[in-house]
Amino acid sequence: SGLNEREREMVARRRRLLGPAYRLFYEHPVHLVRGEGAWLFDAEGNRFLDCYNNVASMGHAHPRVVEAIAKQSARINTHTRYLHDTVLDYAEALLATFPASLGHAMFTCTGSEANDLALRIARAHTGGEGIVVTSLSYHGVTSALAELSPSLGEGVPLGRHVETVAPPDAYRGGADMPARFAADITAAFARLRRHGIRPCALLVDTMFTSDGVFADPPGFLAQAAEAARAAGALFIADEVQPGFGRTGAMWGFQRHGVEPDMVTMGKPMGNGHPVAGLVIKPELLERFGGQARYFNTFGGNPVSAAAGLAVLQVLAEEGLAENAAKVGAHLRAGLNTLAARHEAIGDVRGAGLSVGLELVTDRATKEPATALTGRVVNALREKRVLISASGPAANILKIRPPLCLSAEQADMFIEALDQVLAG
Ligand code: PMP
Fold this sequence. Notes:
The protein is α/β, with parallel strands linked by helices. Helices cover 38% and strands 18% of the residues. The longest helix has 22 residues, at 320-341. The radius of gyration is 21 Å and the shape is globular. The protein contains 13 helices and 16 strands. A seven-stranded mixed β-sheet has the order 4-10-9-8-7-5-6, sandwiched between helices. Strands 11, 12, 13, 15 and 16 form a five-stranded antiparallel β-sheet that branches. A four-stranded mixed β-sheet has the order 1-2-3-14. The protein has helices at residues 5-18, 63-73, 85-95, 111-126, 143-146, 170-173, 177-194, 220-230, 286-291, 302-317, 320-341, 370-382, 407-422, and strands spanning 32-36, 39-42, 47-50, 104-108, 130-134, 162-165, 199-205, 234-238, 262-265, 276-280, 345-351, 354-362, 367-368, 385-386, 388-390, 396-399. 4'-deoxy-4'-aminopyridoxal-5'-phosphate is lined by residues 110-112, 115, 138-141, 205, 238, 240-241, 266, 276. The site of 4'-deoxy-4'-aminopyridoxal-5'-phosphate has 14 residues, from helix 4. Pfam families: Aminotran_3. Keywords: Aminotransferase, Pyridoxal phosphate, Transferase.
């Protein structure tokens, strides 16, 4: 399958050392050793265009972030039980990007830990346990989050306190999607109540990335949050994927004109350094703060805080959210032009540089082109463009390049996709 001897050895070594639970991307795996901006380089010096990785959103190995990490590492790295300015400077800068109602920040190391903490806080505040998520969502690795991450598949059962709703799919759902989505949420919380489970939270990725990337119409999430609150639940926005400029705005929820009760974040927060956390309305934290002490050994350490602060500075100084809006619009326009030539392109959607492209076998029936999508992903890899697919039928290309992507690089992606679809 195109592997050289060294790569074959590495695959066998991984299997021997890491065991069977790890998966590689591609029939022909990629061995990356270096990155710069939206480019990645393999061990032989081949250059790949990264259209997939949403962690190094500021660009791979961004020198400002690398320097901030190195400088703080060379000085001291402790934890939040000693006084330190950096975590406070960071909390202040981070909170300044949110509506004033979200007044406290707490830090973790992964998005999963942030969601886990958010659920503990929500349970303490509401006294309920019932959670509503979308039917192909992913919220993390802990056992509590696996129970509410239906994208993990049937081998990982949902909790009894978890109800799912169909994703807000405007492509298949029609014009009444926003009202139906809100009504589904109301009905899901009602089902929980009938089983004696009090509502706790509606937890959604504000771009519905693993469900298939759903951004439109702007505002539909406000209606959904209203439905959750009417049921007595909190609205938690999982911004692990959409956050930090990806959608062309700082936060995905801004597109919908809604203020969440809590926001969880991670992935690009340290541009590759493991930093994550949440922001919350202070009044919601009172009960949890009274009951529990919170200490996360690595969460909010000075090195992580320095990385996070550097990311916020780079985002602002390089205008990366603005670039995501501009280049994202250029990319979607180009993909729509391709759609005129390739019948398989059923829908192009998204916001900023969070783009979904749905491949279908028939535009009228919208039958998912699952096999074709798999071929496209692997063929793009052979053209040295990295991408992946999601959605219930794995027929939706998930396009999420670093936010520094240029219009020329977007054109390279479009050109490669054009050739692959023609081939
Ligand atoms: N929420 C969402 C929406 C995610 O996409 C992910 C990671 N893919 C997580 C939470 C979990 O984050 P982590 O892998 O950092 O624990």
